[in-house]
User: Which sequence fits this backbone?
C-alpha cells in the first residue's frame, strides 16, 4: 500500500441480479437454468470475502499488512473467484473431459456480465470474459495474481489489489487513511475506523472454528472491561465448543458446523436468511488459513487452542475443497446450499478454489 491518498471511484450500484427473492408460484419468464428459484433471500453482503480476509490480516492501529506475508495476494484472487461464483457470474464449464479433470484444473466460463457494484470484481470479470481461451481455476488464480513467468500474460494481472481493497473499505467507513513515515519515504496506511466490522468478522471466524465468542479479548475498542470481552455483546454461540473456554479444553474438531447469527449485526443483518451464509463462513476460514492470517484473532489464546483451531480450518478445507463434498465427514452439513442446479454450480467453483488453496505451498 504505497500509492498516494486518492480514493477509488465508487462502483456501479449492485445489479438487481444480485438479489433473488422467493416469488412463490409467480411466473418468471426470464429465469435461466443457472438462476433457479431459491428458497431463501440471496443478497450480496456489505463486506466481500476479499475485504473480510484483508481485515483479518490488517494491523488495527498501524493500518498495514505484514510485510512478510507473500501468500495473501494469491489468496485474495481466489476470494474474487469465489465471490463471483456466489454472485452467479461464473461457473465451471462442462465438456466430455470434465469428470476426468482434477478439480482445480477445470476451466471457468462467464455466465453473466452484469456489474456487481465492486470495482475489483467487475475488473476480474472483464478479464475472464475477455480471455481468448478457456482457462482453469488454478490458471486464473496464477494470472490474476501475476504468478507467471510469461510476459505475454502480464495483462491479466490485477494490480494494487490490497490498496484498492483498503480504499474500498475507507469508502464503506470501515477504515480511514493516514500517512506514515517509514525511514526515507511516506506510505498511506489504513487503520481501523469502525471496529464493529472487524469484530463481526472475528465472531464469524470463532464460530466456524468452534471457539466460544467469549474467548475474544478487547484489543481495539474500550467498550469491554477485562471481565467483559469486546465481542461478547454480539451474543454467545451455543453448542459449538462442548464446554471449551478457549484454554484448549474443548474437543473442537468434532463439533458440528452450524450457523450462529451475529446479534446486533451491522454488516450481516438477517444473515440466517441468506443463502450460502454458512458456506461463506467456511470460505472465509479457508482463505484466512491459506493466507496465513487465521492466527491473528487467536494470538492471545494458548498454543493448544490455536493448534486445534488451525487443525479444524484445515479439516474444513479438506471437506469442502473437493467435489462432491466429503459427506462422510462430521464437519459436512446439508445446510450448505440447497441442492438446486444453480446452487451446485456455485458450490463447484468454490470447491475448486478451496482445492487450489490447499495446494498453495506447491504453487507459490
Assistant:
Amino acid at each position: 500500500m504505497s500509492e498516494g491518498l486518492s480514493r477509488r471511484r465508487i462502483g456501479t450500484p449492485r445489479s438487481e441480479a444480485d438479489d433473488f427473492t422467493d416469488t412463490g408460484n409467480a411466473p418468471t419468464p426470464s429465469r435461466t437454468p443457472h438462476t433457479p428459484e431459491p428458497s431463501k433471500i440471496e443478497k450480496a453482503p456489505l463486506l466481500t470475502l476479499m475485504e473480510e480476509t484483508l481485515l483479518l490480516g490488517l494491523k488495527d492501529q498501524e493500518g498495514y499488512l505484514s510485510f512478510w506475508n507473500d501468500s495473501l495476494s494469491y489468496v485474495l484472487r481466489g476470494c474474487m473467484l469465489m465471490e463471483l461464483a456466489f454472485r452467479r457470474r461464473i461457473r465451471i464449464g462442462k465438456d466430455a473431459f470434465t469428470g476426468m479433470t482434477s478439480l482445480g484444473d477445470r476451466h471457468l466460463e462467464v455466465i453473466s456480465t452484469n456489474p456487481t457494484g465492486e470495482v475489483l470484481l467487475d475488473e476480474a470479470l472483464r478479464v475472464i470474459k475477455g480471455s481468448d481461451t478457456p482457462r482453469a481455476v488454478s490458471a486464473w488464480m496464477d494470472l490474476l495474481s501475476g504468478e507467471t513467468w510469461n510476459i505475454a500474460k502480464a495483462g491479466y494481472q490485477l494490480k494494487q489489489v490490497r490498496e484498492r481493497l483498503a480504499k474500498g473499505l475507507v469508502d464503506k467507513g470501515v477504515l480511514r487513511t493516514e500517512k506514515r513515515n517509514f525511514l526515507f519515504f511516506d506510505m498511506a496506511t489504513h487503520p481501523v475506523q469502525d471496529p464493529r466490522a472487524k469484530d463481526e468478522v472475528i465472531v464469524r471466524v470463532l464460530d466456524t472454528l468452534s471457539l466460544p465468542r467469549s474467548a475474544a479479548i478487547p484489543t481495539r475498542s474500550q467498550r469491554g472491561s477485562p471481565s467483559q470481552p469486546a465481542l461478547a455483546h454480539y451474543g454467545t454461540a451455543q453448542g459449538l465448543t462442548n464446554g471449551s473456554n478457549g484454554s484448549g479444553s474443548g474437543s473442537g474438531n468434532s463439533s458440528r458446523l452450524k450457523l450462529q447469527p451475529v446479534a446486533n449485526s451491522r454488516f450481516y443483518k438477517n444473515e440466517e436468511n441468506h443463502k450460502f451464509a454458512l458456506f461463506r463462513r467456511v470460505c472465509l476460514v479457508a482463505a484466512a488459513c491459506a493466507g496465513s492470517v487465521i492466527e491473528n484473532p487467536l494470538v492471545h489464546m494458548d498454543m493448544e487452542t490455536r493448534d486445534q483451531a488451525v487443525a479444524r480450518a484445515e479439516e474444513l478445507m479438506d471437506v469442502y475443497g473437493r467435489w462432491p463434498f466429503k459427506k462422510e465427514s462430521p464437519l459436512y452439513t446439508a445446510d450448505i446450499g440447497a441442492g438446486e442446479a444453480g446452487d451446485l454450480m456455485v458450490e463447484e467453483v468454490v470447491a475448486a478454489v478451496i482445492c487450489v488453496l490447499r495446494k498453495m505451498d506447491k504453487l507459490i
Observations:
- The CA atoms of residues 321 and 351 lie 5 Å apart.
